[in-house]
Amino acid sequence: MEGKQRSKLKKGLKVKVVQKKDQRSGNLTEGIIKRILTNSATHPHGIKVMLESGKVGRVKEIE
């Protein structure tokens, strides 16, 4: 639930995201937020972010 609210996320936060290619398997990728890509305050599938590694995904967990 926490990854669905933009207000709980900020640059430098450690999170787990699901990438587009992993949506079926639900495989999570861990990383540090570089940019927040979703403009709206909330999103039902999670806020889309770019990690420092360059990977893009929707936040599922905040560590």
UniProtKB/TrEMBL annotation:
It holds the Pfam family DUF2196. It comes from the Bacteria. PANTHER family: YWBE PROTEIN. This is YwbE family protein.
